[in-house]
Specification:
EC number: 3.5.-.-
Structural class: alpha/beta
Number of strands: 12
Radius of gyration: 17 Å
CATH class: Alpha Beta
Protein name: Cyclase family protein
Number of domains: 1
InterPro entries: KFase/CYL, KFase_sf
CATH architecture: 3-Layer(bba) Sandwich
GO molecular function: hydrolase activity
CATH superfamily: Putative cyclase
Keywords: Hydrolase
Length: 214
């Protein structure tokens, strides 16, 4: 491994805040009254930067707490997706830069710039989506993890589509991470990815801390 001084760590995680739908952070204890500060957290399981478990769409009964730890630290390829427009489809042709490089178990991070639209209606309602053909391609390549900036890999307003794309990916044992940010800070096309979801017993998904190491 490289000496620590030669490493650069980029946090790809949105901070959870009360400005997000599905987050409620309330005071529980205070220094003045109780002698320490603490808060009560109420979190939707797929809020902010998060990881899906196959249970999310009943593809298998695997829950977030049973994903093997060795699946959570991987080599990841960063793909610059060009010509991103509202509700566009990300296709196999966008994978051309890594098509001959990717190996079984590698992760793929799609840089679309969509995280800049957080707190806008477009962020959720006009997101770039994974095409059905690309979902199958990622499965054929035996990708281990797919990370995207939008809050979903498919149109959340189209139940048929969102179910189909999640199902294809999950049936191919691809871990899905959604809601990434700061991909524009990455300077390499290959990084070490650390993806750590909250270990929620029997969870269908959970907020996650995602780090890239260059």
């Amino acid at each position: 491994m490289l000496p620590a001084k030669n490493k650069r760590i980029i946090d790809l995680t949105h901070s959870l805040s009360n400005s997000m739908e599905g987050v409620d952070i309330l005071p529980a204890k205070t220094i003045a009254k109780d002698g320490w500060n603490a808060t009560t957290l109420q979190l939707y399981s797929h809020v902010g930067t998060h990881m899906d478990a196959p249970l999310h769409f009943n593809v298998t009964d695997r829950t977030i707490d049973t994903i093997p730890p060795e699946r959570l630290i991987t080599k990841a390829w960063v793909v610059q997706v060009k010509d991103v427009h509202p509700s566009c489809l990300i296709t196999i042709s966008d994978m051309e830069p890594i098509a001959d490089k990717i190996q079984k178990g590698d992760s793929v991070l799609l840089h679309t710039g969509w995280s800049k639209k957080l707190h806008t209606t477009a962020y959720r309602d006009e997101l770039p989506r994974i095409s059905e053909a690309l979902a199958h391609w990622l499965g054929e390549k035996q990708v281990g993890l797919l990370g995207v900036e939008p809050p979903s890999v498919a149109d959340v307003n189209n139940l048929e589509e969102v179910t189909k794309i999640h199902t294809i990916l999950m049936k191919n044992d691809i871990i899905i991470v959604e809601g990434l940010t700061n991909l524009d800070q990455l300077t390499k096309d290959q990084v070490t990815l650390i993806s750590l979801p909250l270990k929620v017993e029997n969870g269908d998904g959970a907020p996650a801390r995602i780090l890239a190491i260059e």
